[in-house]
Amino acid sequence: MQLVVGRIGRPHGVRGEVTVEVRTDDPELRFAVGTSLATDPPGRGPLVIESRRWHKGNLLLALAGVADRDTADELRGTMIVIDSAEVEPSDDPDEFHDHQLIGLTVVTASGEQVGEVTDVLHHGQDLLVVARGGQDDALIPFVRAIVPEVDVNGGRLVVDPPEGLL
């Protein structure tokens, strides 16, 4: 499974630098000079980082073979991806990566089948998007009070929803 770690934005300047919307908690590792970046769509890559710098809170990359603004602009919207196997598991038992949660079966504490996690949204509070087969998707806050058990190896998570959530 591929994970998005960044998205190429607009060009910066006239020498081919691009801005990157960072979507990883370890940009120093993922965007190190000399790194070869896989892309989505795949035909736009791989891209090799020649230099990296921060400018006013934005990550700027110079990429091999991208020497002008027009070439940089052709990369706009390209997703930078890694294989999920490259992500180290967390030592914190209460911390999960999105790809670990997507696909888990959701059941209530009483054993009633709810659905399957199809996405994780990060909007101030993490929300699990749960497909419920024919019904509208449920948005479940990913907090211990509502999701008391996550069994990644067993392929399920248990929810104890307050009245009206589902």
Order of helices and strands: EEHEEEHEHEEEEEE
Spatial order of the strands forming the largest sheet: 1-2-5-4-3-6
Shape, per Cα inertia axes: elongated
Q: Note the gap between the termini.
A: 29 Å
Number of E strands:
12
Measured by DSSP, the beta-strand proportion falls in over 45%
Tally of DSSP helical segments: 3
Radius of gyration using CA atoms only:
19 Å
Question: Considering DSSP H and I runs of 4 or more, what fraction of the residues is helical?
Answer: under 10%
Mean pLDDT over the full residue set: 88
* Low-pLDDT sequence parts: none
Backbone structural class:
mainly beta
Largest sheet report = 6 strands, antiparallel, barrel
